[in-house]
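Design job #97: recover the sequence.
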């Protein structure tokens, strides 16, 4: 799921049927479950990507430092589409290379998307919590106005 489809889905789910407030009150539990499941799923994906990023970053530091120039490393580098480093990168320049590394940027972008989905779902859940009280108050008000 991407953020745009999530936003579209919430736009549909957020509509309240004012003529069926009791039904809407019951529907809140289903919506809460739905968005909590999405939040939990993407929170776990984000953590997995964070771990993957950290491992890849350490590999890249070792690679840029020239630690994979042995003949036994050739197959592993080939599998990753890399060649042995001809010149070791100075420690001061390694961070610049990491900041521009395509593999690390791809992981970071995926993690950013997951984090945005988590933030969005968190806001949806807060809205659902507030809505529950609003619907309950409206139902009570309608009962009061009807003489009950």
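Job complete. Output follows.
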């Amino acid at each position: 799921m991407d953020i745009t489809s999530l936003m579209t889905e919430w736009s549909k789910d957020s509509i309240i049927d004012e003529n069926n407030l009791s039904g809407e009150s019951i529907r809140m539990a289903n919506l809460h479950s739905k968005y909590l499941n999405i939040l939990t799923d993407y929170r776990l994906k984000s953590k997995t990507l964070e771990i993957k990023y950290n491992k890849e970053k350490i590999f890249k530091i070792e690679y840029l430092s020239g630690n994979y120039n042995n003949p036994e490393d050739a197959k592993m580098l080939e599998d990753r589409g890399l060649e042995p480093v001809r010149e070791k990168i100075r420690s001061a320049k390694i961070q610049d290379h990491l900041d521009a590394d395509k593999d690390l940027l791809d992981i970071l972008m995926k993690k950013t998307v997951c984090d945005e989905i988590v933030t969005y779902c968190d806001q949806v859940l807060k809205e659902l919590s507030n809505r529950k009280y609003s619907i309950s108050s409206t139902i009570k008000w309608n009962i009061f106005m009807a003489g009950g």
